[in-house]
Design a protein that fits this description.
2 copies of one chain form a homodimer. By secondary structure, chain A is of the alpha+beta class. Chain A is built from 15 helices and 9 strands. Helices cover 40% and strands 16% of the residues of chain A. In chain A, 60% of the residues are buried.
Amino acid sequence: MDNEHHHHHHHQNPAPQFRDLPAVPSDGTPITIDVWRGDLIESQHAVHGAVIDSHGGVVAAWGDFEAPIYGRSAIKPLLALLLVESGAADQYKLSDREIALACASHNGEPGHVDTVKAWLGNVGLTVDDLECGPQAPSYEPALRAMYEAHEGPTRARNNCSGKHTGFLTAAKHLGFPTKGYIQYEHPLQQRLLGILEQMSGFSLTGVPRGVDGCGIPTIAFPIGHHAFAMAQLADPHHLPEARADACRRIAKAMTAEPWYVAGTNRYCTKLMEVTGAKAAIKTGAEGVYMGALPEHGLGICIKVADGAGRASEVAMGAVLRHLGVIDEAAEAKLHATLEPEIKITGRIAPGTEARF
Amino acid sequence: MDNEHHHHHHHQNPAPQFRDLPAVPSDGTPITIDVWRGDLIESQHAVHGAVIDSHGGVVAAWGDFEAPIYGRSAIKPLLALLLVESGAADQYKLSDREIALACASHNGEPGHVDTVKAWLGNVGLTVDDLECGPQAPSYEPALRAMYEAHEGPTRARNNCSGKHTGFLTAAKHLGFPTKGYIQYEHPLQQRLLGILEQMSGFSLTGVPRGVDGCGIPTIAFPIGHHAFAMAQLADPHHLPEARADACRRIAKAMTAEPWYVAGTNRYCTKLMEVTGAKAAIKTGAEGVYMGALPEHGLGICIKVADGAGRASEVAMGAVLRHLGVIDEAAEAKLHATLEPEIKITGRIAPGTEARF
């Protein structure tokens, strides 16, 4: 073998690569994501997950899909059910943009931040009512603009600020105190727990719990039950009418306004811009990714064992291709997105672990 | 069990935690790093590694320590040997600070950047001679200051700029062209390959290779051989005098000027400030960490299988404690560093995968 010639091709690019979307195993083993650099697999990730239908049937599974996980931000579409089904979204005449923001881990770009602030004003509240902490934008141009204007991290800029505004809106509508809404014992959080329990089909009493990055409770239940919850969001015909309508409205809002779910250059935004109404997908910290497929009546939940966001994106792409949600035409359009290079000569590229 | 009372303790803090430095296995299995959130192990990392003495004896090993890896920036102390043993460091009267910078993956703070620029001027070169790409500081206050001054990423700010300045200095001293010094075929890189081969005791012909983040070649050889190279750096009495002197000088420079090896709040800087001359440690991208222990005559190399920097830091701490380099007094001083919380309500904390 002519080593020098063979090597030259790989050596033009200092960035690691995921070489082609991996095929997903059909034997129940975890999905393996290989991170290449030149001639070597430099690192590897193992991904566990499941695809469940709205009757609870297991369509596909990888690794230990019964393991409990924290869904993190990937469950935001489920948490948004209260905002919609309670009538709060209607009372305040929320559009798809606000509902998408309620499901968002956004970039902190001006469009996100300004829409959150206007929404707060619309419901008679301010940024001081938000109980998520101050955060800087994760999108570099927005970060730069913030510093150049001599400004700093704010609660409205927090990537979860849309979710929190949704919580406040629901609390107001339901007559709950707005203060302390992030506490486990607050009626809002307890109501959300009930929704998660019904959607997941899993009893949430006595299960492991913790505190999420933005201060709200996070509760653990199996990967497969997270996927089932998303399957019900995708195909809610079993559910009471108000909840079923809310499920459809949330999936529609996410897929109609994908930029508001994440932002510029973000993986889920780029995917949903191409796949349209077929897939409402949402990322979560520690390598979680979930999706609701309305046309297929399926729910997806994957979890990277080591928590890496870069691997969860590639794995979600592989699963969507496996299910035919990403067809050849979509794959051609999304090529650069589906086989991401992690830029390492500058700031961490969007879509890596910086996201919730 | 009183769940509410039990949970309250864990639930005050939204950050994940590494609960206590893990004990390292004594049965050859990988070191497992558990990432906790509340009541659940949310993610896990597997760490492979070895501790080797200067005769090549295996003192301790975890997982597959014969697996080939790219050492990434963790081999910078070995690459700095050419700068010193060639006489270049003496010709240009380099201090411990420049030698530490030659080994550095620095934060891009003004002290780092200004020292690099002054060094370049000292050898009759400029930032335009650097062939690493432009980069922004990874240390948030330095990043903020850069933006507030309406400046941007530069080559001098690149975290590898000290290493590259060391390369340029050696090239000038040896009469090599300075142009193209990052290319595999350049005499400088070929000379470095020879040094790595001798120090590692591993033939580097026909092995996997790639391009590192800053554009220089990266070459793969086993974890254990990386550790052996560091053992020789730690205890170079077998080596020819010029190289042995260079080994001692590099270890001394790193441990005397730890801030110049990394920077403010960085894990290795904080560790070396406490452990002093006992441990010259260096991080590398994709979860690599290496160390030379002069008083023990040992070398360490660990590699996190999934590439996570957060796990490599915890694992290095565990190994150093296992070897007695971190004693009780040092552990008390380093408590917050050894059991890091990853701050997730703001920018990524120093020490995570953003580093080379």
